[in-house]
Amino acid sequence: MTEEDRQKDLKFMALALEEAKNAALRDEVPIGAVLVDANGTILAQTSNRTIELSDPTAHAEILAIRDACRKAGSQRIPGCDLYITLEPCAMCAGAISFARIRRVIFAAPDPKGGGVLHGGQFFNQPTCHHRPEILDGMMAEDSTTLLKGFFKEKRERG
User: Fold this and answer.
1) Of the residues 3, 28, 52, 61, which is catalytic?
2) Residues 147-157: pLDDT tens digits?
3) Strands of 42-47's sheet in order across
């Protein structure tokens, strides 16, 4: 990876972290996602909205994929990269695979609910038809601090 590519990745992950912070302000689990095309154009930028939409599938990744696919007029968006502040769950990993996303870049690992490096490891299953390139750990400390702070505050509020 070139330094220029790394800087682009950091820029998009920083935007995903801003989205995660916005989610926390709405009392949603602070997870953000940014989806960009091969030219680096942002196709979707969002965060979790499960509470707001009363929809357990309204994870940041799903919302970003829906928005980008709608804009592309296609169920598949190959060549696109998805930046997420937390390791995707199995549901989101399935959507990523079905959308044929090229690369998944995520910040913090999720040993309890992750579906990429943890849990069912969706992309390693023989039934998975598309395996994106995975880059993990980018700005992980920032994301982890945000998530831990959010849940600590929720526990303290009761």
Assistant:
1) 61
2) 999 999 989 98
3) 42-47, 32-36, 81-86, 103-108, 133-136
